[in-house]
Amino acid sequence: MTQQIKAVLFDVGGPLDTETIMDSEIDEQIKRSFRSRGLSISDEEYSAANQWAIDSFAPKTYHSIMWKIAEADMDLIHSVEADLMQTVPERNESRGHFELRDGSLGLLAELKEDGLLLGLAANQPKIALENMDRLGILEYFNYREVSGSINLRKPDPRLLLHACETLGVEPSEAIMVGDRIDNDVVPARMLGMTAIRFVSGRHRTQQPRSWNEVPHANVRSVDELGSTIRKFVQSPPNTSGDDGPE
Prior knowledge:
Blueprint: E1 7-10, H1 20-36, H2 43-55, H3 61-70, H4 74-86, H5 88-94, H6 104-113, E2 117-120, H7 127-134, H8 147-150, H9 157-167, E3 174-178, H10 181-190, E4 194-198, E5 217-219, H11 222-234
Parallel strand pairs: 1-2, 1-3, 3-4, 4-5
Helix pairs in contact: 1-4, 2-3, 3-4
């Protein structure tokens, strides 16, 4: 028996923050760091390492890219990572700290007006909450925690479960909106939530490994996301028995 949808959880990177500039600048910084240390990594080789990290469901994509390119040379990896961390402030400034997706504020306001509870479910540093507050995003959310504030990281399903418990809803009464199969769809479906994938950014080519990792819907725009959420509110998908045969 399906239950009424009462809440929507949002990942931040992807659905709300496009991270387009950030991803591009991180990629270029990693390539520069390797090249400055004598490793002539081509753009094609970097793209292959990136795709390998995505296809292998690597929790921390950039770590896996470095690992693949450096062939597990930890001294090299640590030096490239140090460069990456040192340039964080510069990247944040160049992208304005948050690349707000057009139309997302309007959608959040409409969902709130419809009576839905809204929550965050994101692997983000605590400072992301300040950036969202500055842009007027945070005010729409009833649950306002991220991984950096509760010390849980997806794909650990406890991050999503904590959000649901704080909102006072069962997982089956909530929708998870995220851009990754591994970090968003997998833990959501594990808990019996409705999973909507916003196909966007670095992980747009990621594919499920079996039927129980397939999102209940794929969307590619804010308008499509809004209509899909409303469709599921009116008629929730049957998430019981999602695991199927072993």
